[in-house]
Amino acid sequence: MTNLQSKNIRSILFTITAFCMAAALLQGIPMLSRLPRNAIWLGTLLLFLPVPLTLFFLHRTGKLTEEKILYAILFSGMLFRCCYVLLSGLYDRQHDEGVYTGIADRQANPGHIGYIEYIYKFRRLPDFNPYQLFSYYHPPLHYILSGLWLIFLTGIGMPEDLAFENLQILPLFYSGLFMLLTLLILKKLGAHGKPFYTGLLLVVFHPALTILSGSVNNDMLSALLLASCIYASLCWIREKTLKNLIFIALSIGFGMLCKINAAIIALPIGLIFLLDFIQTIRQKKRQNLLLALRHYTLFGLVAGSIGLSWIIRNLILFHVKPGISSATEASVMYTGNYSIWARIGLPAFADWHFSFPFHPLSGDAIHNTWVIMFQTSLFTEVYPTELSGLPLILCQAVYPLAILAALCSAVLFLVLQCRKYILAKKQLRQPAAHEALFLFFGYLIFLSSFAAFSLKYPYTCSSDFRYIVICLVYIAIGLSDGSCPHSDSHAAPASPGNSSSACQKVFSIFQHATRVLVWITLFLTTMIYMIWEQW
C-alpha cells in the first residue's frame, strides 16, 4: 500500500473528530471532575485493552493488515490525548496563558486566553497596537478559530466557563490531524512494516505533542501547518502541478498567519524551487520557462498575501515591525550574561543535571539551549521540587535514554538522507535527490533557527522544545526508513567478508538499537504521565 485509500483517511478523520466531540461532552460532566485521576486512567486503560487483544486475534486469524495496525496506533494516540485533556485544566501546563473575565465586562485581558477572549467578546481583531498587551503580537489565525469556537459553544447554550475549558478541544483536533499528516508523509516516502510503525509511534506518543494537544496557544496549529508544508512539498517534488504548488502556498501562508516563524520552512522550499527553475532554464524552452515564472509568481502572491497580511496590517495601522514581546534583563529567565558557547555550544556533563532532570525558570541554574530543549521535550517547563519515589526514578531513567535516542535518531535521519541523495544522483532520479535534499536541509534549518532564536531572545523559555516540535516529523522519517546506507539494488551482492557487508551489518544493528531506544523511551514517558500526580 503506497498510499492510503480515501475511505481509510475518512475513517481516521471520523475517529479523530469523534474523540474530540466525546472529550468536549465529558468535560461538561460534573461528576467526572470529582473522580480521582487514577479512576480516569483506569477507564482509559479499560478502553485501550481491546486494541492489543483485537490485533492479536486478527494476527492469529491471518486478517491483520497494515491499515488495521495504523488505525489501532492512531486510535490509541487519540485515546491517550483525550485522557490528558480531561485531566488538565485550562490553566495547567500552559505558556503565557493569561486570564479571561468573561463577556459581561469590556476588559481586554493579556495572554493567549485573553487574546481569544477579545475576539469572542468584541467580535473583531484588536483595534490597538498589538505590542501593548502581552501575546497580542501573534498573528490571529489560531485566535480567530478559537474565538469562533467559543461563539459557537456559547451560542448553543454551553455555560461560558465550560466553553473556555473546551478551548483545549481545538488543539486536540489539530494534534489528531498532525498524526494523520505524519502518516501521509511517511506513506508518501514509501515507509512500511515495523520501521514505519516506530516512526508513527514517535509522533503519536511523544510527550511534547501530548502536552500541546491540551495547550491553548498557537503552537499545535503552527506545527500542523508546517507538517502540511512538508507534505505539500513532497507532493510537488513528485508531481509539479499547479494544484500542488497552490497547496504549498496555502500551507505556508496560513502557517505564517498562525505564527510568523513558520516562514522558516520557506528556505528548504525555496531550495527545491531554485533547483527546479535551474533545470527549466537548462531545457532552453521558452514556453516552459514562462510557465514556471507564472507559477512561481502565483505562488508568491498567494503565500505572501496571506502570510504577510498581519505584518502589513500592523505596519500600516500602528507603524510597528514584526517581533516578539520579551522579558527584561532583570528577569530570572535571562541567559544573556553567559557566553554564546555556554548557551548553544556542547554542554558539559554537569550542565545536563542528570540527578534532577527538570527545567527550572532560573537562567543561572540552566542556560544551555540544548539541555533545556531535551528537558522540556519530556517534561515541558514543569519544575516539581518534591518529586520522589517511582516517578522520580522513572524520570531519572528516561532522561538520559531520551537524549541518547534523540541523538541516534538524528544521526540515523541525516545519514539516510545523504545516502538517498547520493544514490538518487547516481541513478539519475532527480525527484528522489530533491526529496532527500529538501528533508536534510529543512531539518538543519529548523535546528539552526532554533539556536539563533535562543541567542536573539536570551531567556530559558526561548529554548523550549515546543518551538521545534516539527522536527519530530523529520525524526519519524528517519525511523521509518528500513534501508541501509550501503544497500543498492543495482549493485552486485557484497560478499560476507568485505567491508561493505560489515558496514551494512553494523548500520542495521544501529538502526534496530535506535528504534528499541525510542520504544523504551516512549513507554517510560507514558508510564510517567500516568502515575505522576503533577499531571
Description of the structure:
- Helices cover 66% and strands 0% of the residues.
- The chain is built from 22 helices and no strands.
- The radius of gyration is 24 Å and the shape is globular.
- The relative contact order is 0.10.
Q: What helical percentage do the residues reach?
A: 55-70%
Rg calculated over all Cα atoms: 24 Å
Please give the largest β-sheet: none
Oligomer: single chain
Sketch the topology as an H/E string, one letter per element. Answer: HHHHHHHHHHHHHHHHHHHHHH
Distance between the termini: 39 Å
Class by alpha and beta content: mainly alpha
Q: Unreliable segments (pLDDT under 50, ≥5 consecutive)? A: 489-494
Quick summary:
The chain is 66% helix and 0% strand.
Helices and strands in order, then pairings?
Elements (H helix, E strand, L loop, with lengths): L5 H22 L2 H5 L2 H12 L1 H11 L5 H22 L23 H12 L18 H15 L4 H6 L3 H20 L4 H13 L1 H6 L6 H20 L3 H17 L7 H17 L3 H22 L1 H10 L21 H5 L24 H11 L9 H38 L3 H27 L14 H10 L18 H33 L4
